[in-house]
Amino acid sequence: MKSSPWRPGAEKGRATPAGFYDALIGGEWNLPADRELAEKALKVIPTIKHGAITSRAFLRRAVHHFAQEGYDQFLDLGSGIPATGNVHEIAQINRPGARVVYVDNHAVAVMTGQQILRDNPDAVSILGDARNPEAVLGDEELNKTIDLDRPVVLLAVALLHYLTDEDHPYEVMAQLRDRLAPGSVLVLTHGASESYAPSQAQQVQAAFAASEAPKPVTRNYDEVLRFFGDFEMIDPGLVWLPQWRPSPDDPQWFVSDPVRSGALAGAALKR
Fold first, then answer.
1. Which residues pair with 190 in a beta bridge?
2. pLDDT at 203
3. Which residues is 268 bridged to in the sheet?
4. Interval 134-157: pLDDT, tens
5. Is the dihedral of CA 257, 43, 41, 203 positive or negative?
6. Is 53 helix (H, G, I), strand (E, B) or coil?
């Protein structure tokens, strides 16, 4: 059995969204339970792996763009594991000295992040739950690293579809938006119901339920757009993942069939 890269005995751990996502993109920070869940999901929706890869590509493009625009503070909420090519690397290459805070509610993801970032004085990984925004934004380590009175790029990539209606996701996002300084940017992605047949979504949810991992939910275009509140959408608006400021290096399938990405993406500015 493959040994866990973060701690002995972790092979017995349960699947998590962070580990599931890492398994889909071929990362090394996942457990057998994560890989088993990924295999089950792929049998139902074979394109889900492409969606995860597209999501990571979008994240990199967005961070690159806003760092180039002069932003030097990034808050990655529901970050998962800060693996190769993640926010701190892209931000700090484009904006030396950029400060990055990763937040996740899974202790192993945070512990792994702390290990990866141990030699990086401008990036931290903290334990926090998006469903409790006051606690997250009040965290001492977060406030030592970034200044919430200055513009921040808030990243909620592949996060909100793990918040059910019972988690009050719109109220959560409203609280987060309210705390951001003018000039801040909200960047988010969300699984789109327009991309999947109802039976596919139900089968994936069943696979997650069997693994005891949080079940993802899909929402339609208008429901995803609502998360931005009164923020001003940044061109090109809310679009399929590959359509948001595409790169010339993107694979052809990104361009030819963007619906296969399975998720909508967008960014909006707080005036």
1. 264
2. 65
3. 186, 233
4. 999 999 999 999 999 999 999 999
5. positive
6. helix
